[in-house]
Design a protein that fits this description.
19 strands; 5 helices
């Protein structure tokens, strides 16, 4: 999803969905199964959640293959080409229905009214994937997506990988590689980080809170990053890299070309943004547990928010540090996952405070998500998740309702505090087809439980049912 540019989160990249309400693209695609000759359950508990084998497959660059290859080698047996006869393509379709607890205002005329309550997405999302081997040691997960809210086709998550393995003394393995990607954490091996964390699919027709940290989906598809990683003995993982703005659909106002970016573009990274990740996984019998840390340091020049501004001078800085945990138990009959993440962000808002777009020169934001999932024989299961965002009150970032404003996406007290629960039940008649019913319940929304926007809307009014048919081929 592309980062937005309005006042409230030109400052902190915000008016995007709290990641608990974003819909990350699935990592599980049938082209991987066709390439490896293995059923989905080899790499997944239930798609898109990865098993240990799936994590190793991803770290190795998506290149494991069991298909006949077109090969070419030199006289010295150096590989020049290794190409599958069947291209690793897949499609994914999501069709959905969303119903809010209380209808939204209808803004089509000055007369009071309410919008139609109930949104059918048919499709909500349609994706084409290239997912698999490209060449020896080089593979890709690349997604092209149509979304019904924008009505456009655009580049979604992309992860291009070069990887190789060395055998160290004591028969220890070292997987090492490079990934070129467009969404921090999309390259991660665990489902406890934002890009592929729960919920794995969410409504794009629900009401979304104001606040979200930079690493929690805000930068997705707006950046390009190159990171290097090592995975020692399939246990200890470390990764570092840099990201730079790579805005889609942006043109230079002088030349009309794709760049360079100028002051008419919102939230441009100053220079590059460092990203880092460390994690340790321990496996025994049918169990595995992972503990990790990750983070980023992002400096944003406001540019066009709230008005065109030269890309120089004061900037807003977002320093994110996060912890994550994931436990899995996997047997033929029972699959259990317990996972979570906590992201703390320190905001230094020199640019926004100087322009009056934030009330404070510094703020903080903390997002916590915890969930547990159970499946029986990979057919019937569900997830219960808790989410919470807390932070500094700031009437500039989290704007109160102006006179005549219908409210809803505002905060009467300038607070970003939001918390609630997600309950989901799933039925998989086949491994590549999922039927889901999800309920989102808010205890607090944008700083309040009742009358949070100052014009009478309660947090529970934004509760939502989300019904989904999700399949891939």
């Amino acid at each position: 999803m592309k980062s937005g540019g309005g006042n409230t989160r030109a400052l902190c990249g915000a008016a995007l969905l709290l990641s608990v309400l974003t819909a990350p693209a699935a990592l599980a695609v049938p082209s991987f199964a066709r390439q490896t000759g293995m059923a989905c359950e080899a790499c997944h508990t239930v798609y898109p959640e990865l098993t240990h084998f799936g994590r190793v497959f991803k770290a190795n660059g998506y290149v494991l293959a069991n298909l006949k290859q077109v090969r070419d080698v030199t006289a010295k047996k150096e590989q020049l080409l290794e190409l599958a006869q069947t291209p690793p393509l897949s499609i994914m379709v999501q069709a959905s229905y969303t119903q809010l607890s209380t209808a939204l205002p209808d803004l089509s005329s000055g007369a009071p009214g309410v919008a139609q309550n109930g949104t059918a997405g048919f499709p909500q999302q349609l994706s084409l994937f290239y997912a698999g081997k490209i060449a020896p040691h080089f593979g890709a997960f690349a997604q092209l997506t149509y979304e019904n809210d924008s009505g456009t086709i655009s580049m979604d998550n992309v992860d291009l990988r070069f990887a190789d393995t060395a055998i160290l003394p004591g028969d220890r393995s070292l997987i090492y590689g490079l990934t070129l990607n467009n969404n921090p954490t999309v390259q991660d091996l665990w489902n406890s980080t934002p890009a592929f964390g729960f919920p794995y699919a969410s409504s794009n027709a629900a009401v979304s809170p104001l606040a979200g940290t930079e690493i929690d989906g805000t930068l997705g598809q707006d950046v390009a990053g190159l990171t290097g990683y090592v995975f020692w003995n399939e246990s200890l993982y470390a990764e570092v890299g840099l990201y730079r703005s790579a805005k889609q659909g942006a043109t230079n106002s002088l030349t009309g070309a794709a760049g360079p970016l100028d002051g008419t573009i919102s939230n441009v990274i100053q220079g590059v943004a460092p990203y880092w990740r460390v994690a340790y996984e321990h496996n025994w019998e049918r169990h595995s547990i992972e503990l990790g840390l990750y983070g980023a340091d992002v400096k944003l020049l406001p540019g066009a928010s709230p008005a065109p501004t030269a890309l120089r001078g004061p900037f807003n800085r977002f320093k994110d540090v996060a912890e994550d945990i994931q436990y899995q138990y996997i047997s033929d009959d029972h699959q259990i996952t317990v996972a979570g993440t906590r992201i703390h962000e320190n905001l230094s808002l020199d640019a926004s405070f100087a322009s009056g777009a934030s009330a404070n020169p510094t703020d903080s934001l903390t997002t916590t998500r915890l969930w547990t999932t159970y499946y029986y024989r990979r057919k019937i299961g569900g997830t219960l998740g808790y989410f919470s965002t807390t932070g500094s009150s700031d009437a500039g970032l989290y704007a109160p309702t102006a006179p005549g404003d219908p409210g809803v996406i505002t905060s009467a007290n300038g607070s970003p505090d939001t918390r609630g629960w997600i309950a989901e039940v799933n039925y998989l008649p086949w491994l590549n087809t999922k039927l889901s019913a999800q309920y989102i319940s808010y205890n607090k929304f944008n700083g309040g439980s009742s009358n949070y926007d100052g014009v009478g809307r309660n947090a529970s009014d934004n509760n939502a049912w989300y019904l989904l048919v999700w399949f891939a081929y």
